[in-house]
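Inputs:
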Amino acid sequence: MKRIAIIGLGLMGGSLGLALKAVGGYRVLGYARKPQVAARARERGAIDAACPDLAASAQADIIVVATPTLAVAEVFRGLGPYLAPGRIVTDMASTKEQVGRWAEELLPEGVDFVGGHPMAGKETAGLESAEASLFRGCTYCLVPSPRARPQAIAAVVELVERLEARPLFLGAARHDYLAAGVSHLPFLLAAALMTAAAADPAWDQLAQLAATGFRSATRLASGDPKMNGDICQTNQAYILHWLDRYMEELKDYRRLVAEAGIEEALARAQKLRGQWLEQRWGQSGPGGDHD
Amino acid sequence: MKRIAIIGLGLMGGSLGLALKAVGGYRVLGYARKPQVAARARERGAIDAACPDLAASAQADIIVVATPTLAVAEVFRGLGPYLAPGRIVTDMASTKEQVGRWAEELLPEGVDFVGGHPMAGKETAGLESAEASLFRGCTYCLVPSPRARPQAIAAVVELVERLEARPLFLGAARHDYLAAGVSHLPFLLAAALMTAAAADPAWDQLAQLAATGFRSATRLASGDPKMNGDICQTNQAYILHWLDRYMEELKDYRRLVAEAGIEEALARAQKLRGQWLEQRWGQSGPGGDHD
């Protein structure tokens, strides 16, 4: 039975543990910086046993680093001396170029690094929000190090498939560009809407009128600021690119509103989203898409 | 038993009919430009009877115009000649200054106009999406004409309270300013995200990576383009103000990302949204706020 060690037992690591325990076939070990988190993970059935330290985690066959992005470097540094050749290391961070550089620099030779990023999440953080079904049906990006052995890559693919997620191989830069557009830009837009509205002198009344539309438009503003701040630091260039691209689009929209000609753009957006929903989720139209 | 005529039997008019029929106490008449829509509304139990024309609708005690915004003017023009003094007219359009001017211009003297705007909706349009509970708990903005008699205003407040909605009196300009910020700006932001992402050469891959975050960030892009286009035409100045304000906020965010100092703004946004959820919906944290 393969031993998996999950380092970091928040939303992502906790959900991974719950999912693996549900499908079986792995012995699931867990490590969290705060011992009480690992204890709670064990109580919730997300792990079989807690590791006392990083050195113990390093004895597993596959080590999954599920911390916020900037902490991945520290964990790699802490694990490095204890990792025997043939160990497989993967992560769940949202940006892959920086994490790949840390792996290159901090993990010993003979260890196989296969970067990972499941395109799934919730705006609420922590073990309490973890769910066994979080990754079911999601696109799970895989960015293997150029030196990773085929059998190590296959072992991570097997893990992903056990989660009922769909592996998608990408280069690190390509991944970061794509994630900036559909994941990182949206949380910045949501936060900016929240702070812009709340900074208005009429916020008391705005807050009364704001309804389900504002609620979904700002949902991602409830995301973990530390986690999202780390993402912005490690994917800065692509995020700035997308912010610039988006501001250009908004300028076009502004012009169209001023010219009373926005309806066509709105119709295009509606159609594009319907197609995406249909293709991505196999559903569209009434009932398929609430708040 | 008071007679209510609902003109326009889409999402808003249909939901109003279903809600009034559920609580009882009104005879609910309906008119739709396409007779088959009125027939379906009757089948669904949203109205007691269909009016053959606008003239027949004008015989009701309270006439509710529930069409897209630009069509309100046509309906007022068509109703005008048939409205006896003492009739009460209200509407459900998202912008109130322009509708108030049309009421002033097109409705006969002695008719009481009390503009209305329930802060509730869905991104899917049409009678098929209508729900009896759509307005329950929502803020229902009321903008009475300066000449509306107190008993007419009281009759509309009674109607709103029957829907279990919360009446909020506002001036027309104030309403339009507030609605532009929390309702109209958000649908433009969602549409711009959708079209900007889909215009990227990598859209095929972006679409695979886009997950629940992108889904909620673009939800409002599925709104009816005609309805939202009308809103942009009749609330242009305030929408342009909010677009400009939002672009300033995004420029600040861009600078903070470039300086690796965005975390504080993200933390502020998270906190503000938590407070708003708590105050507005009486809930926050895990489980309370999905996609």
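Residues 172-198 of chain B form the longest helix (27 residues). Flag for discussion at group meeting.
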